């Protein structure tokens, strides 16, 4: 049981994996007999990074990392939005948010495999993919609304510690619920999706990366429109600023909070499918580490600030990929935490945050 | 003026936890009136308004609006019924623009044209808001914020407007401007106004009737003129 | 009765229907393109039945119909409570101690093993209690200090052959240093930010343990850690001192019991000391505490360091017990588990924490066939406690509201 095992296996990109498979295939087989899988991967990866030292001053390598960083950053941004929106509206770190992300990944794989099983995947790939994304997002929105009503709403007037602990409990509960219904082992995504990519010299942009970038862009624009241009978005921002006053102008805070949870979870679900497609599989505890990283992104951008979460997500993604590429692949998870800690220490309001009332933090 | 009060509080007891802010408060507001509640700091004036709006739920007693009990109704359902409050300290949404603040006032309304017309009407009442429509609410001066808060409340098309300390922290000239507009709203739109003020002189001059609230209890009730000339009131609240 | 609880029943019905909607896609849609309902419905019916019974009990209880049962029970409980109060405390404390001493002699190896785990978690829970319960700071990376203690002993023992008793203070000391390192930058923050930052620090320590191959042997862990050795004089040829290795589980139990007793006494003494009052004042209202002349920063750092020391000492014992350490023992879930015990028992209350640990370690052992539901139950316990009894099973005597909650 390794919370970060999922993301350990992921390493960086499929681009890398291909590299080290070629580099040390027989070593891999030899070691496979000696160690458990994840430690094996660590070893091999270390080996790979030593092997790669020569190539690192290459411009192509830099551009490749940049593209990988943006892809990963986009995914983090999608998750971070949920944290930041929920925090903005009810001042609670929704620990269960990472689980919405994981649930999204699972429901995505369930529907994609279902469509593949029915045989529609070959004939109508676009429809099936869109449907899977839509259904997973709807599912997570539905899940999140219920979770909020059960575990957070009754505690809204209680102490913040109580709500936080309840959120933590919900996170553990959901993660194990996923394990019980879906199994302990990784669940593979249909592998025939999105093979290949575009090559520019040494730089590869896979079609999957293109899909992720486009979809992330669309979702972010849609969210921006919703929050900044519609009446609902206005009401959401108003509720975040002053709940009593919003009630006095006929805004129902319960409905706004539900809506916020639904949107945040929907975005996380989309990120979950993307991660599933990107790395080929999902795992019940995959929400934990990306959850903290996305939270770091939200804090970095200024918690409660939607644009900030997007920027923060991109920065965290970049830092992780470049840190892994140029400094150390083994400590790539640490970079996000260090950013989190230093932001909170030096500038708790984040790079784009408003001044936060001291007692709230 | 009809006999049926549009808003009535019957024996309201209210408070925060173990602190009793209101004890047995009863008052009546008739359609078209301007009623002032005056009282010192901490007398329970704001609690009275918050209880009417359902933010604070009373321990005992009932609030009737147009003859119907409303204490069980959620606060967000009251503005559509025509009951709206401008709370103490304005409480405009600081990180929303002036225009967005006004649009939110009309949150429950769906008539796009009506909303646009009303926004124009508010800009006519308060031209300064029109000039600053794209500015964030938090960047406005105190007086402008008060105007915005009143404008936002007008966007809900209130039948009864509850005003909590509209003069708080404002320069005298702006206070007069605001009270003029309050009088206009009452006269032109026929909106009933329940006004809560520490500044008894101003409030009683604007009002038709007045109540005096002392430590959570109503101690006096009379025509505003009479209160204004009541020697006790003059001594206690008007500094004579 | 139906009328009274109309809202409860309505919410329950909606909730159960919601649950059905949540379960079905996970259980009823299969990769071969088929859709089934049977499994979903059967799982759902189990949950429905379980929650229905609980709800009925709840409804009957709140409506007062359960009084014939609860009144005598509550009366008996009160009687026992007053008896405990009337009796001089040394009587029941010594009774408990005697039970604890006899325990390994009358039970088997397995039960002793469980008891040792319970004692470890009691130490951890008490240490975390200093941070969360007394000083009021939510620490989600607490298990990292346990890891530091365990690794300190394991490394010193394996690499330099140092004995347990030499390493024990070093473990405590290094954990304390780690606590200060984590505490120093984080203590300026309040509430939930502190929680997430400690979580981050905990993960950083675990990742370092996992990746620093040269020092820690990474995820494979360190094997061959020696157990506790005691020097015993032997009188065969004159007098020689020889090391006796504590290999028998029963004997090991007594050492851990000793540690737990020390921890209980220490936390109790701390709680009722000047320092404890300072911590509680920080928990109740940090600003007011500062104005009253409590150096909040130092006291918070001290709370962190104290909590870390307990974890470090327990960690050294843990390494000696397992004879093996690996980063997998120090994941976030462990932190969450300890926290769950503290929350269940009652933050700030020593008997509460002991009860919480026993409930969450011993009960899952008793229901081993439901092993995989264990974390599910932990999560649910935390939520339910927060919803219905946030002060815990045995609430602490002195608690008020946390400062940031006052409006």
CATH topology of the largest domain in chain C: ABC transporter involved in vitamin B12 uptake, BtuC
Structural class by secondary-structure content of chain C: mainly alpha
Computed CA radius of gyration of chain B, to the nearest angstrom: 17 Å
Uncertain spans of chain B, ≥5 residues at pLDDT below 50?
none
For CATH, the homologous superfamily of one domain in chain B is named as P-loop containing nucleotide triphosphate hydrolases
Mean pLDDT of chain B: 89
Task: Please summarize the sheet with the most strands of chain C.
Answer: 2 strands, antiparallel
Q: What is the rounded distance between the termini of chain C? A: 37 Å
Supply the CATH architecture of one domain in chain B: 3-Layer(aba) Sandwich
Q: Give the integer mean of the pLDDT values of chain C.
A: 85
The CATH class of the largest domain in chain C turns out to be: Mainly Alpha
Characterize the quaternary organization of these chains. Answer: heterotrimer
Share in β-strands of chain B:
25-35%
Shape summary of chain B: globular
Query: N-to-C SSE series of chain C?
Result: HHHHHHHHHEEEHHHHEHHH
CATH T-level fold name of one domain in chain B: Rossmann fold
Strand order of the largest sheet of chain C: 1-4
Query: At CATH's second level, what is the architecture of the largest domain in chain C?
Result: Orthogonal Bundle
Rough shape of chain C? globular
CATH class of one domain in chain B: Alpha Beta
Keywords (chain B): Amino-acid transport, ATP-binding, Nucleotide-binding, Transport
Protein name (chain B): Leucine/isoleucine/valine transporter subunit ATP-binding component of ABC superfamily
GO molecular function, one term (chain B): ATP hydrolysis activity
Pfam families (chain B): ABC_tran (PF00005)
């Amino acid at each position: 049981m390794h919370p970060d095992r999922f993301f350990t296996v992921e390493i960086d990109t499929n681009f890398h994996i291909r590299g080290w498979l070629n580099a040390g295939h027989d070593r891999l087989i030899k070691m496979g007999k000696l160690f458990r899988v994840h430690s094996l991967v660590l070893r091999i990866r270390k080996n790979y990074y030593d092997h790669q030292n020569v190539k690192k001053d290459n411009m192509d390598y830099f551009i490749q990392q940049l593209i990988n960083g943006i892809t990963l950053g986009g995914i983090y941004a999608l998750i971070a939005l949920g944290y930041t929106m929920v925090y903005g509206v009810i001042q609670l770190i929704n620990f269960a948010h990472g689980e919405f992300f994981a649930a999204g990944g699972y429901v995505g794989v369930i529907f994609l495999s279902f469509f593949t099983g029915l045989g529609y995947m070959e004939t109508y790939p676009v429809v099936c993919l869109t449907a899977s994304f839509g259904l997973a997002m709807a599912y997570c929105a539905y899940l999140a609304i219920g979770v909020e009503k059960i575990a957070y709403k009754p505690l809204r007037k209680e102490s913040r510690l109580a709500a936080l602990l309840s959120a933590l409990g919900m996170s553990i509960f959901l993660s194990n619920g996923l394990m019980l219904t879906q199994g302990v082992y990784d669940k593979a995504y249909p592998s025939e999706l999105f093979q290949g990519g575009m090559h520019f010299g040494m730089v590869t942009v896979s079609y999957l990366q293109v899909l992720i970038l486009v979809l992330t862009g669309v979702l972010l624009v849609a969210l921006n429109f919703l929050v900044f241009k519609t009446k609902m978005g206005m009401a959401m921002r108003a509720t975040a600023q002053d709940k009593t006053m919003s009630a006095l102008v006929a805004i129902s805070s319960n409905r706004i909070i539900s809506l916020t949870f639904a949107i945040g979870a929907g975005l996380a679900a989309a990120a979950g499918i993307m991660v599933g497609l990107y790395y080929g599989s999902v795992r019940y505890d995959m929400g934990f580490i990306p959850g903290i990283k996305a939270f770091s992104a939200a804090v970095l951008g200024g918690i409660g600030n939607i644009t900030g979460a997007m920027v923060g997500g991109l920065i965290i993604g970049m830092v992780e990929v470049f840190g892994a590429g140029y400094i150390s692949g083994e400590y790539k998870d640490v970079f996000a935490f260090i950013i989190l800690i230093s932001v909170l220490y030096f500038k708790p309001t984040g790079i784009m945050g408003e001044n936060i009332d001291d007692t709230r933090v | 003026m009809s006999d049926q009060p549009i808003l009535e509080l019957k024996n309201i007891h209210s408070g925060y936890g173990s602190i009793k802010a209101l004890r047995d408060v009863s008052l009546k507001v008739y359609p078209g009136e301007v009623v002032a509640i005056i009282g010192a700091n901490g007398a329970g004036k704001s609690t009275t308004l918050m209880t009417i709006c359902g933010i604070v739920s009373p321990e005992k007693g009932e609030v009737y609006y147009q003859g119907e009990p409303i204490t069980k109704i959620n606060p967000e359902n009251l503005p559509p019924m025509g009951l709206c409050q401008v709370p103490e300290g304005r409480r405009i949404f600081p990180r929303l623009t002036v225009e967005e603040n006004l649009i939110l006032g009309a949150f429950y309304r769906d008539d796009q044209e009506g909303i646009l017309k009303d926004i124009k009407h508010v800009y006519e009442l308060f031209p300064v808001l029109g000039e600053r429509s794209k500015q964030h609410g938090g960047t406005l001066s105190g007086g402008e914020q008060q105007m915005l808060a009143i404008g936002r409340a007008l966007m809900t098309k209130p039948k009864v407007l509850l005003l909590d300390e509209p003069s708080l922290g404002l320069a005298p000239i702006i206070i007069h401007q605001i009270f003029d507009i309050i009088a206009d709203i009452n006269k032109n739109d026929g909106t009933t106004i329940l006004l809560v003020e520490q500044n008894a002189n101003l409030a009683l001059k604007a009002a038709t009737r007045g109540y005096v609230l002392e430590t959570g209890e109503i101690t006096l009730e009379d025509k505003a003129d009479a209160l204004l000339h009541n020697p006790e009131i003059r001594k206690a609240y008007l500094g004579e | 009765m139906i009328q009274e609880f109309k809202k409860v029943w309505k919410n329950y019905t909606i909730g159960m229907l919601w649950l059905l909607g949540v379960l079905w896609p996970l259980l009823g849609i299969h990769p071969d393109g088929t859709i089934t309902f049977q499994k979903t419905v059967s799982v759902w019916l189990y949950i429905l039945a379980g929650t229905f019974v609980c709800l009925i009990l709840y409804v009957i209880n709140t409506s007062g119909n359960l009084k014939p049962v609860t009144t005598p029970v509550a009366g008996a409980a009160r009687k026992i409570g007053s008896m405990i109060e009337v009796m001089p405390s040394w009587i029941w404390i010594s009774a408990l101690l005697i039970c604890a001493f006899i325990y390994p002699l009358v039970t088997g190896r397995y039960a002793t093993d469980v008891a040792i785990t319970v004692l470890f978690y009691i130490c951890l829970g008490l240490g975390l209690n200093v941070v969360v319960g007394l000083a009021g700071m939510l620490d989600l990376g607490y298990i990292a200090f346990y890891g530091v203690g365990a690794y300190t002993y394991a490394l010193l023992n394996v690499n330099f052959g140092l004995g347990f008793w030499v390493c024990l203070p070093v473990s405590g000391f290094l954990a304390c240093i780690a606590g200060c390192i984590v505490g120093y930058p984080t203590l300026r923050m309040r509430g939930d930010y502190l929680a997430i930052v400690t979580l981050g620090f905990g993960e950083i320590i675990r990742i370092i343990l996992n990746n620093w191959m040269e020092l820690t042997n990474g995820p494979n862990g360190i094997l061959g850690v020696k157990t506790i050795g005691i020097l015993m004089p032997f009188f065969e040829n004159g007098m020689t001192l020889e090391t006796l290795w504590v290999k028998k589980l029963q004997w090991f139990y007594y050492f851990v019991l000793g540690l737990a007793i020390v921890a209980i006494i220490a936390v109790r003494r701390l709680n009722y000391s000047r320092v404890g009052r300072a911590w509680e004042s920080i928990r109740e209202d940090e600003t007011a505490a500062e104005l009253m002349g409590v150096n909040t920063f130092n006291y918070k750092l001290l709370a962190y360091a104290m909590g870390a020391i307990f974890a470090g000492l327990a960690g050294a014992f843990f390494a000696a017990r397992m004879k093996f350490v690996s980063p997998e023992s120090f994941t976030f879930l462990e932190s969450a588990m300890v926290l769950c015990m503290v929350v269940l028992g009652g933050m700030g209350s020593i008997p509460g924490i002991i009860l919480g640990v026993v409930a969450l370690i011993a009960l899952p052992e008793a229901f081993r066939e439901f092993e995989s539901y264990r974390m599910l139950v932990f999560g649910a316990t935390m939520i339910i406690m927060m919803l219905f009894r946030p002060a815990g099973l045995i609430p602490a005597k002195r608690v008020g509201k946390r400062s940031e909650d006052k409006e």
